[in-house]
Write a structure and sequence with these properties.
The protein has one domain. The protein is 61% helix and 0% strand. It is built from four helices and no strands. The longest helix has 17 residues.
């Protein structure tokens, strides 16, 4: 349940990290530390997780390629008879 202990739901967390990502990439080392500390308090994620999410955003998923048919017509007719 989001909001019970002041926790963010996953969608809100991703929106927050998206807004923070640009600032994080342009920030100096000292500023990155401050941003990570603030994000740590708000999202309750580990620092390493935050670094990965802010420095390297997830790539959009690509649709899966379906496998082709591997059986010939004679095998299919045999299976239909069974």
């Amino acid at each position: 349940m989001a909001g019970v202990l002041g926790e963010m739901d996953m969608h809100s967390r991703e929106q927050y990290l998206e807004t923070l990502r640009g600032d994080y990439r342009r920030a100096s080392r000292k500023e990155k530390t401050r941003l990570l500390n603030e994000a740590r308090k708000r999202t309750r994620l580990a620092r390493k997780v935050l670094i990965r999410k802010l420095a390297h955003p997830a790539k959009p998923s690509q649709p899966r390629v379906k496998r082709g048919v591997s059986y010939g017509a004679d095998v299919v007719t045999a299976l239909v008879q069974i």
